Amino acid sequence: PTDSVPAAVQECVDKGVKAAIIVTAGFRETGEEGSQLESEVLRIARKGGIRIVGPNCMGHFNTAEDLFSAGPRGIRRGPLALISQSGNFGEYILERGNEKGAAFSKYVSSGNEADLTVEDYLEFFAEDEETKVICAYIEGIKDGRRFFDLARHITKEKPFVVMKVGRTAEAARAVLSHTGSLAGSDAVHDAIFRQCGVIRVEEVDELLDIALALIRQPLPRGKKVGILTAGGGFGAVATDACRRYGLEVPALSE
Asked: Where is each Succinyl-CoA synthetase-like flavodoxin domain found (predicted)?
């Protein structure tokens, strides 16, 4: 039960535990009373030197260490890292990834992020040698400046693909009741992503397809694209798609 979590965290402090995953829901996402309870849990944890994943999350895994507190069966070890502020949605991404042949280095379901946040996990994955591409499902960003600086640094070395929800007022309300996150201005997020080189996607399959392409293919050195096709119509469609996304299709010499 939610109201037993503070005592459980205090017991962890007494035992010298240094990190805890709180799966339990019913905190900030439920309103003022839950928010106060979450603050109490965080106060106890910080006083005792414990770092918290969650609450309202579903755990994490590290395939290199064969350490799993979350995730479906059959996870393959590989270069893709995933952060998800939604536990169930993160599990769905992993399951679709399994179906598509994706292989993962690490995963974390961050939940309400009372202590550790998306920015903390990004900082870790930026330096993680086993991670080559970072993916994230994000409902809200707590520290915009830190996220901006980290993302701008990361994308110079590793692709960063984000599915950011909360484009509409209705979706923003759903996000607030889910993990207690403030979705923020979608136009601002779009601008931040563009400036940082973050790839924003709309759907899970798009997230995974782009991540897999970036893992399997080297990053392009520029914006110029050559198109080889068996039919003129296919070439025209491909050319339109390239131009729509800011790529150049130069005329070939005779």
From this structure: 77-213
Q: Which domains does the chain have, with CATH numbers?
A: 2-52 (no CATH), 59-216 (3.40.50.261), 222-254 (no CATH)
Task: Render each residue's pLDDT in the chain as its tens digit; 254 residues.
Answer: 899 999 999 999 999 999 999 999 999 999 999 999 999 999 999 999 999 999 999 999 999 999 999 988 889 999 999 999 999 999 999 999 999 999 999 999 999 999 999 999 999 999 999 999 999 999 989 898 999 999 999 999 999 999 998 766 665 666 555 555 554 577 888 899 999 999 999 999 999 999 999 999 877 889 999 999 999 999 999 999 999 989 999 998 87
